[in-house]
Structure formats: structure tokens, C-alpha cells
Amino acid sequence: MVRLIPSSFKAMLMGAGLCGALLGLPTTQAAEPSLWQDVQKAGVLRCGAAVAAPYVMRDAKSGDYSGYFVDLCRDFGEKVLKVKVQFVDTNWDNLVAGLQGGKWDLAMALNQTPERALAVGFSVPATDYQVSLLVNKDNPKLTNITDDLSTLDKPELTFAVMSGTAQDKAISSVIRQGKIMRLPGMDETRLAVMSKRADVLVDASDTNHLFAVANPTWAKEVLPKPALAKQGVAFGVRRDISLADMDVLNIYLKQKRDSGDIERLVDKASVEANTIR
Length: 277
Fold this sequence. Notes:
Blueprint: H1 7-24, H2 35-42, E1 44-50, E2 57-58, E3 65-66, H3 68-81, E4 84-90, H4 95-100, E5 106-111, H5 114-117, E6 121-122, E7 127-136, E8 158-162, H6 166-172, E9 179-183, H7 186-194, E10 200-204, H8 205-214, E11 219-222, E12 228-237, H9 243-258, H10 261-275
Parallel strand pairs: 1-4, 1-5, 8-9, 8-10
Antiparallel strand pairs: 2-3, 5-12, 6-12, 7-10, 7-11, 7-12
């Protein structure tokens, strides 16, 4: 005996089948914006460059850039993205703002801090950083100097630091009685200590070490304990970068660090930094 199926039930079955067919179709998603694809279309990777040896250096006569972050940016652009690389001159006060405003695609040698992470994204660190101090060991104000910062926090001592840098923020957070002299560049801070207008040079440990090696007759480096502002040094990127694009940069940097390539670039830049005057 053949049972007749009501037309309403047939319609319901057909509707269910249609829904199942539709659910089985692959969904079309909007293409995720790609920074590296945009860079490749433009044919140039723009790297924001604020000078601080040995990370980023600039020849005053030729305008050419060097330093190990410069080498990394150039290598990433030319070897990975297959584009030209342009270095855009800026300073530390404007490096983050320029990245946010799209003036460059990467900001070189940014210290990773929670405050900066509210404004920009970070790659994995290329190297590590901490703040050190450099003094004139013949300075009568600095007899019996130790690595305890509290022994240096005195009204008669002046600390020279580059304005707007991580070093500036770090020393400003711990010095309460001493004077802080904020200057626009590294050369100015070094000259302030050399001319004895300032007593203590505040800078990254690697750059202070280079300066101490170049001036062994009077310079003495002090590494504060506990470590002051120990952070990773990374590339800054815009916060809207895709995870896929971030992976490209992070994998590149991890491979460079694991292979020892970054260490070799640091050594090369350090030698160059001591020959540039």
C-alpha cells in the first residue's frame, strides 16, 4: 500500500535539504588585509630610522644608514619580500607616531614596553636590552661608586640621557633627587659627560660598553642591580597587522637569531660604531 506524503511535509523536507546543501558550501570570507602584499605592490619597504648606535647609525656626509637593525630591515625587505628598502629619517619622539600614521612600515629597534604595546605591535625580540650608566672614574663626586642606584641619587649629580628614549623613561622612574639633563641625541649626551656638564651617562648597555671600550682612560660602566629596564628590542609594527604577516617577520627573526646571524651583525655594527666619530 502506497502512503501519500502530505504536500506540506514535502515542502519541509525540500527546505531542509536545501539548507543542508547551503551549509555544505564553503563560506566566502573577506580577504584579510596584508601589509606585506601592500609593500610588495608598492615595491618598497619603508623603515623608520631613529639613530642610536649600534642599532641604527647614519653617516653624516653620505646619509647612508648602517647598524644591525638596518642590516636586518634591508635583508628582510630584499631577501624575503623582494622589494627595495627605504630608510626614513626620524627621531625617537616621533618613531611611534610615524608608524601609527603610516609614514613607515616598520619602526626599527623599539624597546618592548607595555605602554608602547597600547599603541603599536611588536615582533619577537631581535636582541635584549638593559639600561646602564657610564661615569668618569676620576670624578670626585663619584668616589666609591657601586651598582646600587640609590647611592647615585644625589642632588649634586646630573644624569645625561637622550630625550624620549626607553633610557629616559627608565632613569626618570628611579631618580628622585638627582638632576636629569634630557638632550636630543647620543652625541650630545656623551659630550655632556666628557665636558663634565653631566656626571652620569644613561644609555643602553651595549652602546655604553662600546663607549667605555673606546675611552678606557676615564670611562667606567656601571650595570645597576637589579637590572634597570631589561627589555626585548624588536621591530615595531602597526597594531592592525595580520597574524599571518606577523608570522612572516617573527619566523625570519627567530631563524636569524637561532643561526647566530644577529650576533654577527651586532659584532659588525659594534666595530663600526667605534670607528665613527
